[in-house]
Structure prediction request, 343 residues.
Amino acid sequence: MIALGLMSGTSMDGIDGALIETDGEFKIKSLANESLSYGNLSKEEILNKTTALHAELISQILSKNKNYKIDIIGYHGQTTYHNPLEKKSVQLGDPQYLANKFNIPVVFNFRQNDLRHGGQGAPLAPLYHHALMTRDNLNNLAVINVGGISNISLLTKDKILGGFDSGPGNILIDKFVQKNSDQKYDRDGKFGLAGKVNQDVINILLDTTIPGYYEKNPPKSLDIKDIIYPKILDNLNLFDGCATLAAFTALTISKNIPNTIKNIVICGGGAKNSAILSTLKNYLPNTLIKTADDMGWSNTYMEAELMAWLAVRSVKKLPLSVPETTGVREPVTGGEIFYPGSK
Prediction:
């Protein structure tokens, strides 16, 4: 099937779209991708216009790829609330509008069925990471998506060992940069590379950013609102703050990598942050760390590809989550399909 996946992550800086050909299992071929930046839109404007913005990106992709007939759209929507204890995860968006507008079925609400069956509703990526690993005949691998939040997939050739959110990805760095400069984020980690890591602040961050979370055993997942921005950061200059927060992200990731895992693949915005990558290599000196781009995968479009792949699995009633990833009681499928012509 030809599937289009759409992802607007917790950083809320834009939408990524990816077109793939897949059977929802190990056949995965990237065909095209495109991004739409939110530019200077406020958070309120983004939330109010989220479906229209997604429609704009779909239109761009369709106009540039007229040689492909798209069978299904995987539409994640914009997460505004995630609380597994309440069995609740809210993604804004109007899938029926998109299905009617483009005359293509749309899969939405990917997390709800997992939550109904006792899962965390996140992360959804490990099954896709395992499919890529299997396709490429790899073994003993950790795939780490460093978006606003960092999530980890621990994989062997035979099975998924685990999948969970490890802590902050870029969210604290982005907030710090926005408070202390006219930039939205630390592009390529240049601010962090120019600063010094403050170990005393890191020790405080471990206690204050998500109290009790880092010691908690998986399955576990986070909402962006769970991560507290500590006032201690106000004592650091731009460069030392970025260096310290990059090291903190790397530390909270490294604490979750078993000794048996010798290869790591980094994707998401953090794959472009050299300060995160360099400190992660310091924390894991015996591990080979590559970016998704290095692997011939994609730093930027991994999650959009994931949504396309999950949409096909949803149509085929294949599992989207398993006990090892979300803590769900048994493997479950998910997603709701919205067909063109309905109201």
